[in-house]
Specification:
- This protein has one domain (3-155): Alpha-Beta Complex (YbaK protein).
- Helices cover 28% and strands 28% of the residues.
- It is built from five helices and ten strands.
- It has helices at 3-14, 30-37, 70-77, 87-94, 139-146; strands at 19-23, 45-52, 57-63, 67-68, 82-84, 112-115, 123-126, 133-138, 149-151, 154-155.
- The chain has a five-stranded mixed sheet with strand order 5-2-3-6-9. The chain has a three-stranded antiparallel sheet with strand order 1-8-7.
């Protein structure tokens, strides 16, 4: 178990929430993760470290099939623009690779924003800083311990 994974699971334990850990082959996309877990892709809490135009970082979390509407998120943040943080900066901040960022900004002192569409699901899965493990947690418990701002910044996937 890597250090960030230990930190994530310890945070869940310290907050007294129930969760399950699933081990699987390495996954690098929400689609592959959902496939391994035999779950709907929208049950994957996709977590991305974003950068505001003023340089501040935040964590944006949304259902796995959705994409970020950058203009909506910028309005929510009251900033000129928002973009994905550069990979090196995101990985240094999260302590893991960008494909397995966890939805717990409190661990790394980042303001956290959940797209309101996550609230449609009783539970979600997320990577705990590892490509070979997934955590299943009650969505209400995740919200309780992460204390995110709930906003609307997701948009549907592109049509094929």
């Amino acid at each position: 178990m890597n250090a960030i994974e230990e930190r994530v699971l310890r945070f869940l334990d310290e907050n007294g929430v129930r969760y399950e850990v699933f081990e699987h082959e390495p996954v690098y996309t929400c689609e592959k993760m959902a496939e391994y877990l035999r779950a709907d892709q929208n049950l994957i809490a996709k977590s991305m470290i974003m950068k505001k135009s003023d340089g501040g970082l935040l964590l944006a979390v949304l259902p796995g099939e959705m994409r970020i509407d950058y203009a909506k998120l910028a309005r929510e943040l009251n900033t000129k623009s928002v973009s994905l943080a550069p990979i090196e900066e995101a990985e240094k901040t999260a302590g893991c690779s960008v494909g397995c960022v966890y939805p717990l900004g409190k661990i790394i002192n980042l303001p956290t924003y959940f797209d309101k569409n996550l609230l449609k699901y009783a539970y979600v899965f997320f990577n705990p800083g590892s490509h070979t493990k997934s955590v299943r947690i009650n969505t209400r418990d995740l919200i309780k311990i992460s204390r995110p701002t709930i906003a609307e910044f997701g948009k549907p996937p592109r049509k094929a």
